């Protein structure tokens, strides 16, 4: 325990896991009492993957332990291209590419862009993973051959564990959490979805109350959402968010652990606020013309109903301030704020590395 105290939270968690130690303790952090759970839940590293162990990487990707991050094994996919590769992108270009679509982060544009790029590269159209299609993939054995070169969708994270015959990689775009929730709120009001679609009562509730009803919209919970098919049949499949994710959402150590390992999950992290630079990152990492062919695309931007752009922007900013001023909402959105700040830090490092390539 003395040794553990001298390490950072992330080093401590990883060390505890690698040594097979189960450690539970409580720590005072400001006004919060934080329980730190069995660290084997946080990082069940049972093996160490190296470039030489993987014939697809060709020694171009940095070695790192195989960690369990939000239920995703980091050894199932390529790590961040800009932070963990030597700049040779052949392994990434040849990989199965999976785009995790975070709602209201430019996803409509990115998915259209992927279709254009795939056609240019003489690849089949990206396979959109939603409901039945995601269930179908989960039930389909792909030990010998993955018939797809690109996946995309809100529930595409985790698909790489199904790919056995080649490398696989994830990328995503994120957005400032309060701004994203305001955008979701406006979209809900414009669509006026009927009850039961996960965005109930947005026409009748103030945004501070509505936000508390859409916890599954948070990036943190999206990272944890999985497909389970206990019966082995399509009608027995469902999307599940483990109860442990809800228990850990306000655990500072756990949320920081997830944040610190985002760069082991995603080969590229883009920002909705810097769309063009994000496309340049994708183009360099994958060796495909994401920027050249998609820089003019920008779908569904700023559709907040009637009114001029300036008026709608003021309306959006006022609602974001309202959310930030609500203590209950701040606690609720806490994990997404931590993840976004880390993603932004990774993005800045990606851009700096890009400049040297």
Describe the fold and architecture.
- Helix 8 crosses helix 16, helix 12 (252-260) packs parallel to helix 17 (327-356) and helix 14 packs across helix 17.
- The strands form five sheets. The chain has a five-stranded parallel sheet. The chain has a two-stranded antiparallel sheet with strand order 1-2.
- Strand 8, helix 7 (132-139) and strand 9 (150-153) form a beta-alpha-beta unit.
- The protein has 357 residues and is α/β, with parallel strands linked by helices.
- The protein is built from 17 helices and 13 strands.
Uncertain stretches of 5 or more adjacent residues: 1-53
Strand order of the largest sheet: 8-9-7-10-13
Helix content: 40-55%
How much of the sequence lies in strands comes to: 5-15%
Largest sheet composition: 5 strands, parallel
Mean of all residue-level pLDDT scores: 80
Ends: how far apart? 43 Å
What structural class do you assign from the helix and strand content? alpha/beta
| Secondary structure: number of strands | 13
**What pattern of helices and strands is seen along the backbone?**
HHEEHEEEEHHEHEHEEHHHEEHHHEHHHH
């Amino acid at each position: 325990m003395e040794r553990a105290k001298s390490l950072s939270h992330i080093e401590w968690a990883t060390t505890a896991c690698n040594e097979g130690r189960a450690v539970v303790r409580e720590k005072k952090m400001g006004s919060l009492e934080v329980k730190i759970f069995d660290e084997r839940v946080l990082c069940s590293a049972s093996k160490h993957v190296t470039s030489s162990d993987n014939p697809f990487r060709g020694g171009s990707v940095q070695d790192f332990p195989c960690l369990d991050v939000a239920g995703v094994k980091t050894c199932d996919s390529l790590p961040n291209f800009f932070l963990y590769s030597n700049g040779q992108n052949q392994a990434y270009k040849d990989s199965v590419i999976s785009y995790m679509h975070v709602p209201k982060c430019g996803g409509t544009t990115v998915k259209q862009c992927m279709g254009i790029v795939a056609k240019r590269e003489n690849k089949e159209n990206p396979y959109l993973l939603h409901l039945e299609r995601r269930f179908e993939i989960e039930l389909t054995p792909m030990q010998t051959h993955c018939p797809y070169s690109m996946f995309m969708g809100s529930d595409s994270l985790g698909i790489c564990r199904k790919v056995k015959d080649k490398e696989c990689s994830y990328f995503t775009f994120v957005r400032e959490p309060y701004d994203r929730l305001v955008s979701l709120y406006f979209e809900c009001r414009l669509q006026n979805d009927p009850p039961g679609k996960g965005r109930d009562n947005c026409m009748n509730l103030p945004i501070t109350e509505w936000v508390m009803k859409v916890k599954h919209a948070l990036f943190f919970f999206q990272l944890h959402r999985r497909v389970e098919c206990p019966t082995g049949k399509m009608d027995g499949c469902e999307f599940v968010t483990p109860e442990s994710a809800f228990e850990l959402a306000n655990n500072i150590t756990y949320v920081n652990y997830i944040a610190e390992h985002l760069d082991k999950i995603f080969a590229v992290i883009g920002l909705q606020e810097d769309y063009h630079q994000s496309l340049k990152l994708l183009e360099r990492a994958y060796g495909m013309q994401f920027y050249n062919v998609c820089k003019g695309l920008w779908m569904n931007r700023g559709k907040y109903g009637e009114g001029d752009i300036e008026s709608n922007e003021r309306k959006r900013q006022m609602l974001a301030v309202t959310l930030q001023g609500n203590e209950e909402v701040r606690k609720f959105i806490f994990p997404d704020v931590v993840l976004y700040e880390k993603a932004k830090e990774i993005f800045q490092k990606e851009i700096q590395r890009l400049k040297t390539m």
